[in-house]
Amino acid sequence: MSAPAPTPAAAASPGEGARVITAREAGLVGCRRCHLAHAWGTERCTRCGTPLQSRDETSLQRVWAWWIAGVLFYIPANLYPMLSTRVLFTTHEATIVEGAIQMAQSGAVGIAAIILIASVGIPVAKFAAIAWLAWSVQRPGRGDGHRRTVLYEVVEFIGRWSMIDIFVVAITSALVHLRVLVSVTPGPAAIAFALSVIFTMLAARSFDSRLIWDGIGRGRT
Amino acid sequence: MPAPPDPRGLVVCPRCDALHHAPSLKAGGRADCARCGTVLEAPRRISVAEVLALSATVGVLMLGALFLPFLSISSMGLRNDSSIIDAALAFSTGLQTPLVLTVLASIVLLPLARVALLWWAMAPLAFGGAPLPGARAALALDEDLKPWAMAEIFVVGVAVALVKIADLASLTIGPAFWMLICAVLVGTLQEALTDRSALWRELEVARTRARASA
């Protein structure tokens, strides 16, 4: 039931096919929260009070800063134990990957797959995707705008799901505090992993997706 | 560069900065950005009061999920049943404190904060009054907290954890678990039925009216 797309504000220049004009080209600035257009130089959105910026000038700096922090914390997250299980007097420690392998060996292949995808697949793919997005906007004319916008949306949507392993560890250890015979405690990797996920989410949120489309405008005639 | 157009009646895509004439849509319609396809507006028939009612439902269910028994575990004659808050308090020692706080915040505290913020921003409007001070900041913060509220991820985490420790001990699911699932479902419904730009417009109208009568 979707209505036709709203008309772009500026008509196409003849011979070039329909070309969208941006708020910046029109000498306006748009609110990213409530979408309202404002005159150039307006400091805050008149409707929602959000500070207005035609382009986030510090976006890429912040993306790279959070990205580096996320990658750095991802290293100890994988080297240190995520979970240490003590049954009677034997303590057993396992990193993320070791834990998943043990799950698979004990028959729970589906669970092992969820953990591996959420804790290794998604974070690594996300590091690569954010780096590619930030790198590509610094090199105008590269890549497909639609594809990169979709990639950005996927990164924003899926990144949070990496937290699942942290929740599993928290639930397992909270439940099994029968203490006497069995105890399960989160290892140092848990906090490192949580921080890595948080930093990567911040990196994704610092990215100004309008930069993707600016590059295309300049790169192609 | 020609003189900039009058910004009134124009909307801008937040993803790609494309300028559009503000679409006039009926409830149930949807306007996408002509360039990148981002949804610009999707008006809904739901009223502010109905949005608030759904959000209050989420709040009540979340409180129940926080304090009622969540899961019980029994192993070799020992039994341990605990609510989320019990579990959090039992673990808030030493190095685990930041971890416990992160988990607690993302599964219940932030969803509860979002309910409170939405009510602060919008409730006076539903009752015909003037907006409270800071209403705009509250609505904006509610929006910003959205990705950090992770109750739905926690629910999947519980399912994984249940399989993981099923052979260590026997487990029983308590009422709080079901309340959390209901909270996630009602919350998802609320997000799907709410048109955020309509909330902003209503708030703007109410603020203008309040300023005019002051």
From TrEMBL, chain A:
Membrane spanning residue stretches: 63-83, 111-137, 158-178, 184-204
GO cellular component assignments: plasma membrane
Entry-linked PANTHER family: INTERMEMBRANE TRANSPORT PROTEIN PQIA, INTERMEMBRANE TRANSPORT PROTEIN PQIB-RELATED
Keywords: Cell inner membrane, Cell membrane, Membrane, Transmembrane, Transmembrane helix
Coiled-coil stretches: none
Protein's name according to its UniProt entry: Paraquat-inducible protein A
Cell compartments where the protein resides: Cell inner membrane
Keyword rRNA-binding: no
Main location: membrane
